[in-house]
């Protein structure tokens, strides 16, 4: 066995080591390492988790990329139809990693009940719609099916249902104003077959999902005319290059816009989370490193006699420094063990029980989302261990200054 490791193990196992003057300082250093890794894990898991959830919800309501007519319409309502007879529909063959292309149309309406009314946006979709997003946030009922004849089934949010005192299975009227205000509005009687709750109040408070054929009929569009296309991609990290590719592959009368371009302020805000994560990691590693440096210095000064004896027996400064670095590595690994155990427990509790809640008006989610990936956890542990050990190389220089003659004392 390597004798430096052997001596380091004997130091750790010694009873005197556990009751020495340095013992409380060592415990504080271990706690600092554990707290550091806990805070870093929580910062990364919640920061990335919040970014992903917000991106997921924005994409769920709008698709990753929207293709519409090239006009100056900046509202959520589609006014000028687009023909379905496009080279990229129903399959985008000229651009890779496209998950789905689906048609949509939107129209402003008013929900009217016997006691109240509420302005909404009816989003019409067809049988090519990918329901994965709404399946995750469905709280009651089922998803509508628009594959056969025109359907009056709609999917509404829990927020609208609560405000309008509606429940699963209820029928209600939606009024749509005609282009000529002097004429009576269109009235559609729809039935609630499903209720969703995404926690994104900006959309939950306004969107009702229904059959696109109702909008086509009210707008006097043909069956092959829609409000636009939503393009879903397989990897959100490629959204900018994919958006550019889609734009180049569409006709001159069409415009494509990614969800990042449509909601720039939200994406700029969530991009700031990365800076927060980096800052927390740097601060925590510095705090942990400084505590370990203090503990190691106390440990070295406490064992000057042992260092003198080892030097007298022929040990080099490098070998003795290795002894204390191995000792420090043991303390760091102990702190990392407890930190990972406690940190992962906290993250799993939050992931599956949602103990910590957030204000959805501010954060667009009702509870703190957790992103768990053992890849970043392993890298975080390895990085913390290596950086702390590199920081500890400097204080071990003091070992070379210790004289065997002055340090060895005989009783």
Automatic annotation (TrEMBL):
Pfam families: FtsX, MacB_PCD. It is found in: Cell membrane. It is a multi-pass membrane protein. InterPro entries: ABC3_permease_C (IPR003838), Lipoprotein-release_system (IPR051447), MacB_PCD (IPR025857). The chain crosses the membrane at residues 25-50, 277-302, 323-350, 370-399. Residues 28-219 form the MacB-like periplasmic core domain. The keyword tRNA-binding does not apply. The keyword Nucleotidyltransferase does not apply. Keywords: Cell membrane, Lipoprotein, Membrane, Transmembrane, Transmembrane helix. Residues 279-404 form the ABC3 transporter permease C-terminal domain. One of its GO terms (cellular component) is plasma membrane protein complex. One of its GO terms (biological process) is lipoprotein localization to outer membrane. Its main location: membrane. PANTHER family: LIPOPROTEIN-RELEASING SYSTEM TRANSMEMBRANE PROTEIN LOLE. Belongs to the ABC-4 integral membrane protein family. LolC/E subfamily. This is Lipoprotein-releasing system permease protein. It comes from Lutibacter maritimus.
